Amino acid sequence: MNPFSSVTEELKSTFDKKFYEKAKFIPSATETVELFCAFKDFLYQYPLECTAQKACPASLEQLAARLEKQILNSLCFLCKEKSDCNACHARAHQLTQNFILALPDIQRLLITDITAAYEGDPAAVNPVEPILCYPGITAITLQRMAHFLHKNGVRLIPRIVTEYAHNLTGIDIHPGAEIGSGFFIDHGTGVVIGETCVIGSNVKLYQGVTLGAKSFPLDEHGNPVKGIKRHPNIEDDVIIYAETTVLGNVTIGKGSVLGANKWITHDVPPHSQIS
Questions:
Q1: 27 closest CA partner among 99, 78, 61
Q2: Is residue 46 pLDDT above 70, yes or no?
């Protein structure tokens, strides 16, 4: 008799009861990452050639069918019904259709990000270099796709995508963050952008910048209150240099420049220079 069988069963039973009551509906992290890497290839139109070493990429129709299954799992996992329901099926189908139809708009936004990287970095010799080489472009590409699903009420999948990007690039952008056009993260390592951040257009961040929360209001049970605005607002044309931290629901005014290694917990007027 296996002396560990009872321990194995107890561990599984306890964890299932606490976290995985509807485990069969959990989205696959592996499948989700593969899907969004494939969508990334479609956005940048590479690699579209078939070779002996690499099969042709799946069509958008094939990717959409796979994505719909993962979205359905996410909806069913959080649904109050005990099993999958017609409403979740219908919503998953519509969300998938909307996501695919939104890809051209996402691509147009990303072109402004790539342009900002190319024009803002003298080391970039052509616009393709940021696509292939810059961690900031990889991170914002995945975040913009994840953000679309997040703002439309899909959970789990957007976090899987942005945490994959975090692991890959060292840049942590929550899928809930709202980010305008022409966004450029230079170097990127250690950048953190929180869930309720609102970032305007033509904003540039350097490595180690944190746009985080200052504190967490607690409910009557001592648990953090969720869903409230707690991260900074960065207006258009702001530059924030390396290792600067901005905390709380504060506003950094249009055209401001925050120098390196600063600790900001208050509003900054437009066109300020903090060195």
A1: 78
A2: no
Listed residue (160, 158, 213, 209) closest to 186, CA to CA:
209
**In the predicted model, is pLDDT for residue 84 greater than 80?**
no
Q: Distance between CA 163 and CA 181 in Å, rounded?
A: 22
Give 47's pLDDT tier (boundaries 50, 70, 90). very low
Exposure class string for 55-72: b at 16+ Cβ within 10 A, else e: eebbeeeebbebbbbbbb
CA dihedral 88, 90, 93, 95 (to 10 degrees): -70
Mind listing the pLDDT tens digit for each residue in 225-260?
Answer: 888 999 999 999 999 999 999 999 999 999 999 999
Q: What is the pTM of this model?
A: 0.91
Per-residue model confidence (pLDDT) at position 189? 97
How many other CB atoms are found less than 10 A from the CB of residue 123?
Answer: 8
CA dihedral for 137, 155, 234, 109, sign (positive or negative): positive
DSSP-assigned beta bridge partners for residue 187: none
Strands 178-179 and 233-234: unpaired
Order of strands across the sheet that contains 257-258:
184-185, 204-205, 239-240, 257-258, 273-274
Domains of the chain (ranges; CATH) run 25-171 (1.10.3130.10), 190-275 (2.160.10.10)
The rounded Cα 67 to chain-centroid distance in angstroms is 17
Supply angle C-alpha 76, 90, 146, rounded to 5: 65
